[in-house]
Prior knowledge:
The protein is of the alpha+beta class and 314 residues long. The chain has a single domain (2-302), classed as Beta-lactamase (3-Layer(aba) Sandwich). Helix content is 35%, strand content 22%. A hairpin with a 4-residue loop joins strand 8 (230-235) and strand 9 (240-246). It is globular.
Amino acid sequence: MSVSVMRGGLEESRHQVHVAVARPDGTLVAWAGDPERLTTMRSTAKPLQLQVAIDAGACEGWDDELVAVCCSSHVGLDEHVAAVRRGFEAAALDPELLRNSSGDVEARLRHDCSGNHLGFLAASAARGWPLEGYRAPEHPSQQAALGVVAAAARVPAAEISTCPDGCGVVCFALPLRVAAAIYARLPDEYPRQAAAMRARPEMVRGPGELDTELMRHLPSAVSKGGAEALHCLSLPEQGLGVAVRIDDGGSRAVAPASFDVLRQLLGEQAIPDALEPFRGPPVLDSSGVAIGNLRGHVKLTSRSGSSMEKRDGP
């Protein structure tokens, strides 16, 4: 199961792909590669991490834009920065508190994790926890996030291995199958986050990006990608959650791999034309000319052991 990188007519590189498709009860419906592959839920955990602020009452009165940007890995557009600034104002906090990256405040606000860190700071302010050191594993906000993820995964917190994310907060290692089940349950267990992401998909990533366009064009879907090429999807109309992991962390392979998976789960006719660019993204030369493309070769296997390649649904 792989994605090929084609240069001209030659296969130059190949990315191995792992997929898990699960129902809300955790039943594995289909897979490719190793559905038990341990993977870190980094930005794909952001909707769960925001629950710490929601439980603290810190998001009372927030609109969908603010909730969505706190679940986001935005691309740093002006509208993303404005939303995060507005969130700091709503929480009566100074953006100088951000510790998501180095640089000045503007650089930190444009960093893709600024909304996620706003959530931790807002929760800390509402609970009376220290604002400094909010990224540390022992900080109450990070301990609370671990508790949320453990509950979502149906796994004791002590059994979840953790490590630092790229922005310094805690991230969580879980089998791909468990990540898929979390997303299968996401709309029911985290309705505020799911609804906001659906309502304001442009705040979750950005125009033309996979997460944003999938939520714009697939009814009821919730999409969230993360570092090291993990992509999680909720497909509530099908009662499914999906987790796609590119083994080598190559993010360029995520879109064609996820497209292949959706085509098999939903049927070719159910994929809107607007999503066609994600089927085989181009390989560009230094002048921006397409000289190849990426091609997905991901075939799901069902519990019966048969291929799902020609099926119209799960």
